[in-house]
What does this fold into?
Amino acid sequence: MAGRALGALAAAALVAAPPLLPKYSLEILISILFFAYLGLAWNILGGYAGQFSFGHAAFFGIGAYTSTLLLLRAGVSPWLGMLAGGALAAAFGLFEGYLSFRYGLRGPYFSLVTLAFAEMLRVVSVNAKAVGASLGLVVPTGTPAPLLFVFGGKLPYYYVILAMTGLALLITGAVARGRLGYALIAVRENEDAAEAAGVNALGSKLAAMALSSFLTALGGTFYAQYFAYIDPTITFGPAISIQGLLPAIVGGAGTVLGPLLGSFVLTPISELTRAMLRGRAGADIMLYGLILVLVISFLPQGLMGWRRAVRRSAR
Amino acid sequence: MSGLLLQAVVSGLLLGGVYGLVASGLTLIFGVLRIINFAHGAVMMLGMYASYWLWVWLGVDPYLSVLLTAPAFFVLGMGIQRLVIEPNRQAAEHNQLLLTLGLALFLENLALVLWQGDFRTLRVPYANASFVIGDALVEVSRLVAAGGAVLIALALFVFLRRTDVGKAIRALAEEREGAMLVGIDVARIRSVAFGIGSACVAVAGALITPFFYIAPDVGESFNLMAFVVVVLGGMGNFIGALLGGLIVGLAESLGAALLPGSLKQLVVFVIFVLVLLFRPEGLFGGARGR
It folds into this structure.
């Protein structure tokens, strides 16, 4: 009960406080929610289904490129392009997932295949002049046009990513409490036993894959509109795959709130390191590496697992 | 055209030899520890910097620097295994994968913080020495790298067959409980295996410094390539790693000769995915992978 009240309070603060915040804090909050969102999207496949994708950049990039290309070449609003990107990413996810799961790839092999698919898309987009090659694409954001996903100032972007994060939380909650969640957890814990008990393992994993890749692609469109620039390395490179899965791992994979919690801990650390060690490129990612090693070593279930363990021992 | 192809074949085989040595280290670590070591390329990068600084500060030739870096990286590898990997031996498979990924991020960005991102080259006097076979130009430094890499990989193979430690390593890769039952100190063998794997990749790094740039992220592409090679050759299969290295090197340089831009990398990834999906036990079968 106390937890729910605390959650409502936090949500109210996230909605009400930002207009009062200085620009820099607002930028950090946007970062936090952006990575929380990517973590939530990854978590459906990585956390609940236990399929550790190392290549979610594929979906992120498909989202970013689809909406941006539709805008530049056909004048389609990114709000619609976002959905098109999501659909395309989900289709690609289903293709990737069907191949991998159909041929029984599990554990690290699945991680390697997803990584390879993302790298393939990166190599193709680096070489394709039609999508801007390695120079990337600039998203026109001259005059504010809310219908074209272009706003003046940061605040509207904040509310967009807040809404997206809220939506991802609701979806995760619904998955976790519904049939799909139980099926996924059963498959994650023991696929053969789950199948024997009548769970459609392939179907549930594919559903998780589609949902996860769809949501990740929406994050790609948000990135494109917010930063107004995309290129193959940013959107399809391994860095975004890793930064998207880290909040889930640190917060607690396979929990509803884990990715959100993880991002609230991780992102400010990285922003602070970057601000303090200006001119020392890499310091923040170095710290991420160290945190990842420490979390796996000492909190293998993430912060949520730690909280649970503390509660249990307090009883 | 045939001259171009011949050149591609020669360059491909030469680079493939180096891939073979990198992959031998990776496959050894996989065979014994059952983890896919994402930090392998980062260790290679550190090995390249070690040879680079030995050259800049002390004027040690990169080929001779191997005498110092190989033992140093053996110890470093053992240390990493003892301190980071071994305590998490019981962790879930995906967590071990993330562990080595975290290690890779840490090492790579440590190098970036320490030495910045600029490309460095190690200019040895013999950098441009070359000769011609038929229509193909052979750079001496590339030939030495490939020859050295293949020799070391073969020496490693003999070491694993003939010596007690080598046999213990193979026993552990084959059957962990059996190895424990006959009194093998499995924890020690695991760290020895990680040490040897790290030394191999550091040597591979040193061997390519005369003709390859040095930068904090240089290991990444070799790491991916080594994954491809290891999967192609069969996880834990040594001869497979060497042959796989040659195949991947060849595929990459033929791709570069025939495809525009950097699409050559696509060839390698396509092979990778196809092998993972359709022949996960490797091209040469009989591996102890899965």
